[in-house]
């Protein structure tokens, strides 16, 4: 709103859940929601974050996928700060966002694609190779059925972990077919991708999505076209030249010392960077600590 170039993200969990889960009577349930930053207690926060995603104040919704088993989280059974933080969410990210974002009317289909896919590709300078359907781009495609529904359950998840934060949530919006670089990797919930088929993409620096505005703003700031100054320039007396052995100033008669006139010349100083100072001959005294009564002394000069 202030015109700054800022891009921020949130996670599915923060845009859907609140921190009341930390007060659950079941320790396993409460520990399964430990993440950083923590879920907020205010029940209005998820709806507010979803609104920020919809109006472009937030650019990306991530899964923050870090699944841990209950046994691993039990490392913090006596101290919650030792609970490994992270949530399992990559498998349900798209369906939950469709249900809570598009079905509820907070965002349209185009905004859904932007926050879940294309904006991330732009920020990481992979666009339009990723995040857009055009000739020459990677054929990363999802055939999406907006009317189909599925029930989220830990018993059917394949994303790791033994707990699902969205257990029992019925979501509209189901991916029927997933294609990665032109190859079928998932169809009707059946994963069929061979290990090692992924590919590393080195990221190029300075993506236009982040820097184009700033570059344009720098171009918009132009200098003033003016004629150069051609008048006389005042000569400033500098006693430092004598101290440093640099000789008289230009225009000074040789052998004639310059005299101070008018007010003190603020360009002159008794401070020297040559190593020796003008007050080196003054013996240094130890500092004295002055203890004043409350309210300060009533006499003396401070």
Automatic annotation (TrEMBL):
Q: Which residues form the Amidohydrolase-related domain?
A: 98-185
Q: Which domain of life is it from?
A: Eukaryota
Which protein, by its recorded name, is this?
Answer: Dihydropyrimidinase-related protein 5
Q: Which InterPro entries match?
A: Amidohydro-rel, Metal-dep_hydrolase_composite, Metal_Hydrolase, Metallo-dep_Hydrolases_sf
Q: Which family does it belong to?
A: Belongs to the metallo-dependent hydrolases superfamily. Hydantoinase/dihydropyrimidinase family.
The major lineage groups are: Eukaryota, Metazoa, Chordata, Craniata, Vertebrata
UniProt GO MF annotations: hydrolase activity, acting on carbon-nitrogen (but not peptide) bonds, in cyclic amides
One cellular component term (GO) for this entry is: cytosol
Region of interest (Disordered), residue spans: 267-302
Recorded source organism is Dissostichus eleginoides (Patagonian toothfish)
Pfam families given in the database record: Amidohydro_1
Gene3D superfamilies xref list: Metal-dependent hydrolases
């Amino acid at each position: 709103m202030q015109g700054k170039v800022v891009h921020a993200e949130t996670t599915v969990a923060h845009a859907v859940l609140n921190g009341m889960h930390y007060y659950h009577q079941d320790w396993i349930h409460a520990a399964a929601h430990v993440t950083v930053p923590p879920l907020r207690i205010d029940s209005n926060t998820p709806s507010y974050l979803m609104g920020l995603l919809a109006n472009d104040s937030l650019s990306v919704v991530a899964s923050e996928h870090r699944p841990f088993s209950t046994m691993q989280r039990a490392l913090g059974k006596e101290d919650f700060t030792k609970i490994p933080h992270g949530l399992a969410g990559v498998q349900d990210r798209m369906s939950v966002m469709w249900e809570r974002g598009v079905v509820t009317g907070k965002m349209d289909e185009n905004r859904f694609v932007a926050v879940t896919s294309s904006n991330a590709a732009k920020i990481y300078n992979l666009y339009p190779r990723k995040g857009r359907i055009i000739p020459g781009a990677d054929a990363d495609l999802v055939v999406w059925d907006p009317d189909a529904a599925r029930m989220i359950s830990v018993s059917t998840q394949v994303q790791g972990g033994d707990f699902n934060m969205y257990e029992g949530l019925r979501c509209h919006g189901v991916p029927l077919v997933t294609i990665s670089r032109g190859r079928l990797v998932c169809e009707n919930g059946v994963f069929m991708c061979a290990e090692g088929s992924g590919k590393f993409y080195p990221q190029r620096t300075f993506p236009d999505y982040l820097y184009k505005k700033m570059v344009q703003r720098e171009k918009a700031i132009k200098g003033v076209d003016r004629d150069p100054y051609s008048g006389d320039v005042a000569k400033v007396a500098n006693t430092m030249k004598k101290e440093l052995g640099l000789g008289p100033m230009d225009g000074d008669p040789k052998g004639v010392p310059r005299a101070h006139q008018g007010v003190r010349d603020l360009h002159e100083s008794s401070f020297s960077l040559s190593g020796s100072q003008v007050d080196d001959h003054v013996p240094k005294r130890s500092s004295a600590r002055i203890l004043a009564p409350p309210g300060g002394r009533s006499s003396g000069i401070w």
